[in-house]
Structure formats: structure tokens, C-alpha cells
Design goal:
19 strands, alpha/beta, six-stranded parallel β-sheet, single chain, globular, nicotinate phosphoribosyltransferase, TIM Barrel
């Protein structure tokens, strides 16, 4: 069955100042080509890299951007805007060009992840929503990638919808974490919309609703014979594991096998060891142990290093909210207007002017060796990271299948320098500003 289309994004999902600036641009005839770039000023604390995500949703937004009749009516009645400007908005469509790093590209501070070229009103209007889309999924994917590296091959599952900051955040967090290498999600609509594998067990309330824990287990198993995963820690974890062993022999005669058990509280490593022993002694060595319950990078590292017998980790709150770094210092800034390079020189927020490109080199071992940020016209050694993705408001290629993006990300992470794969702070990845870019910045500064 075909998945339902995502709800359209309102053109009014923006900051008011986008509209007020837009009105002045239109009134003054300022519609020459403008170049804006999206980038991150600095890495969050204790992070060595970021992972680009959200490009697909950004392109979809640009391609479908328009003001609905209802929105135009509201602006005419309540927006305090002249009728001529409302009529301009009724005709507005995005017709610009976009170059971007493909989803899943590793990147670093000051590197443009996306460059947009369009008439100034169009390029300005889309700022807020583009940042909103690119920032959130990049933040979550970067967090998820750290967990994937630490898990050393153990499957990870997204359990974060209930703690997400809104419905869209929960849905896009499932997508971003899956791209980064998670095995799947508990968020059903993510399975419908993106084809992400779905995983689920039971809640403590299901066990509590029964007067007998063993009855709860058996009823669930009979209802879901192909997906029997039982939650053990409602009362006594080890006693529940013993009940699973007793239940397994009764279910076997009905052709039902228990696939897994879940631990959600307490000392996960200690409980996992005891439960593993009980299951193995009961002839259930094939039953997997899934652990959940406020797992973040530090907790996951401790469990992996302790060699706790946990087969799968379910991670929710800490990924969906990116708890240690819930925002990135990112920006979407004007770099050129009407052919004139532009540079912001605010203290602590200066930008590099002009249309830029990022080139990446790799060492003999295939690992990333260093990047250089330069002007688009200044060819450097290595691979150019920004690629054309949209021309005249139309995408140049169909959306990449998620499986292809996941494979590309796995390749990217395998090329990450070893010091950046851990939670330890080390030497930053080398990113150099080219002489051509330094010269242009100096020229722009002297002209002001």
C-alpha cells in the first residue's frame, strides 16, 4: 500500500522578520541573485564531527513552497501588509539553484553544507524553515552516529517518540537515527512514510493489567507468535526470567518461540548477566536480551566495555532530544548579492564571503586526512563535497533510497580518523582556509 503523503509545510512557518524584509526588498526592487550558505560555526562540546541530514526534506520544502489562499487571506486581514505585496506572495515560487553536501556527509565548522542561489526575496524567505529542517536532523543524526560507533555492531533501536519535542521532531528523529545506522524505530508512522523497520515489545502497564505476570507473558505470546519479546522488570527481573523459561516449554508445543526479553531499569549489566544465565540454563540460549532505559553514549560505552550480554540497545530520550547538545550554533548567511561578495564581521560571528566549496583529501589508509574551504572557482586537491541538487527550483534527481544513504554513511564513518570515533576530546580534524578565500575576505574588509 502506498504511504500517505506528508502534510504540507505552511509558508507561514517562518519568522515575521522574513516577511517584513521581503516586503521592503520587493518595494525597492531588490531582486538580484543572492547567495546564502548554511553552516555550523562550531562543534558542540565533546563532539569531533557532524553528520549532514535533512536535505531531502529541505528540497521538498523548496520545491513545493507556496502561500495558500487561506494564508493569503490571513495576511491581507491581519498582516498589516499592502495588497500589492500579498499579490506578490500569491505568485511566489522558489526558482533558484541549490548545491549541497549529500545526506550523510561528515562535516566540520564553517564548512557550507548547503548553498542556495535565488532572487533575494526567495532566498531570504526560506531561511527559517531551511535551518529548522537541516539543523534538527543533522543534530540527531550526529548524536546517533556516535552511538552506532560505540555499539560496535550491536543493533540500536529508536524509542524516542514519546520524549520528542513535537510530532514532526519524533518522526524526523526516527529518520535521522536510521540514516546514521540504527536498525529501526518504534515510531509506526516512520515505518509508513519512510519504510523504516519497526520494533516493539510491551509496556509495564500490560503486565500490571494482569493479576499474574506469567499470564501476561503467555497472552502476549499467543497474540504475537512471530514477535514474542517480553518485558522483565515490572516486579522482579530475575523471577520474571524464570517465568519465561517455564513458559517457553508450554509455547514450544504450539510452535511459538520466544524471541527476546527486555530490561528497562536498574543495573543493566548485572541484570543482563543474571538473566542470560537463567535463560541459558533453561535451554533458551537463542533468546536475545534487549536493554533500554535512559541509555546515552556514556552508558552504552560502559555496557559495551563491560561485555554485558546485551544483544540490542533501545535508545530514546537522549537521541531524540540530543540531550548533551540540544542545539547547534548554525547559521544561514548572505555571502553574495548582485555579484558583490558579502561578509558579516560581527564579533564572534564573522563569516567568509563568496561562493565556497569544500575539498577533502584521504590518507593512504583511506581515512579522512583534511579539508580545505575555498572559493568555488579555486580548484583544490581532493574531492569536492558540495554537489548540484536543484536547478531553477526543480530537483536534479529523485530522492535517494534510505538504504543507499545508510550505506554511504556507513562508508563515511569507516573513513573517520580513529581519534574522532571515541568520546574522548582530542586534536580537532584539520580544516584549512585557502589563501584565495583569505584574500577575498581581506578585499571585502577594505572596501567597507
Amino acid at each position: 500500500m502506498t504511504a500517505p503523503p506528508p502534510p504540507p509545510s505552511s509558508a507561514l512557518l517562518t519568522d515575521l522578520y522574513q516577511l517584513t524584509m521581503l516586503q521592503t526588498y520587493v518595494e525597492r526592487g531588490m531582486e538580484e541573485p543572492a547567495v546564502f550558505e548554511f553552516f555550523v560555526r562550531k562543534l558542540p562540546a565533546h563532539r569531533g564531527f557532524l553528520l549532514a541530514a535533512g536535505l531531502e526534506q529541505a528540497l521538498e520544502y523548496l520545491e513545493t513552497l507556496r502561500f495558500s489562499d487561506r494564508e493569503l487571506e490571513w495576511l491581507a486581514a491581519h498582516g498589516k501588509m499592502p495588497a500589492s505585496f500579498v499579490e506578490y506572495l500569491a505568485r511566489l515560487r522558489f526558482g533558484g539553484d541549490v548545491q549541497a553536501m549529500p545526506e550523510g556527509t561528515l562535516f566540520f565548522p564553517n564548512e557550507p553544507v548547503l548553498r542556495l542561489i535565488a532572487p533575494l526575496p526567495q532566498a531570504q524567505l526560506v531561511e527559517t524553515r531551511l535551518i529548522n529542517l537541516l539543523h534538527f536532523q543533522t543534530m540527531v543524526a550526529s548524536k546517533a552516529a556516535r552511538l552506532v560507533l560505540l555499539a560496535k555492531g550491536a543493533p540500536l533501536i529508536d524509542f524516542g517518540l514519546r520524549r520528542a519535542h513535537g510530532a514532526e521532531a519524533g518522526l524526523l528523529a526516527a529518520r535521522a537515527s536510521y540514516l546514521a545506522g540504527f536498525a529501526g524505530t518504534a515510531t509506526v508512522v516512520a515505518g509508513v512514510q519512510f519504510g523504516i523497520p519497526l520494533y516493539g515489545t510491551m509496556a509495564h502497564s500490560f503486565v500490571q493489567a494482569h493479576t499474574d505476570e506469567a499470564d501476561a507473558f503467555e497472552r502476549f505470546a499467543r497474540s504475537h507468535p512471530d514477535n514474542v519479546v517480553l518485558l522483565l522488570d515490572t516486579y522482579d527481573t530475575e523471577a520474571a526470567a524464570a517465568k519465561v523459561v517455564a513458559l517457553a516449554s508450554r509455547l514450544k508445543g504450539r510452535g511459538i518461540a520466544i524471541g527476546g526479553v527486555r530490561l528497562d531499569s536498574g543495573d543493566l549489566a548485572a541484570h543482563a548477566r543474571q538473566v542470560r544465565r537463567i535463560l541459558d540454563d533453561g535451554g533458551l540460549s537463542q533468546v536475545k536480551i534487549i536493554a533500554s532505559g535512559n541509555i546515552d553514549e556514556a552508558a552504552l560505552r560502559r555496557l559495551v566495555e563491560a561485555e554485558a550480554p546485551i544483544d540490542t540497545f533501545a535508545v530514546g530520550t537522549h537521541v531524540t532530544t540530543s540531550s548533551d547538545a540540544p542545539y547547534m550554533d548554525c547559521a544561514y548567511k548572505l555571502q553574495e548579492y548582485a555579484g558583490r561578495p558579502c561578509r558579516k564581521r560581527s564579533e564572534g560571528k564573522a563569516t567568509w564571503p563568496g561562493r565556497k566549496q569544500v575539498y577533502r583529501t584521504h590518507g593512504p589508509d583511506g581515512r579522512m586526512a583534511g579539508d580545505v574551504i575555498t572559493l568555488e572557482s579555486d580548484r583544490q586537491e581532493g574531492a569536492a563535497l558540495l554537489q548540484p541538487v536543484m536547478q531553477a527550483g526543480k530537483r536534479l534527481a529523485a530522492p535517494r533510497p534510505l538504504a543507499d544513504v545508510r550505506a554511504a554513511i556507513a562508508g563515511e564513518l569507516s573513513r573517520l580518523p580513529e581519534p574522532l570515533r571515541t568520546l574522548q576530546d582530542g586534536a580537532p580534524y584539520p580544516v584549512r582556509i585557502s589563501q584565495a578565500l583569505l584574500d577575498l575576505a581581506g578585499s571585502v574588509d577594505r572596501s567597507r
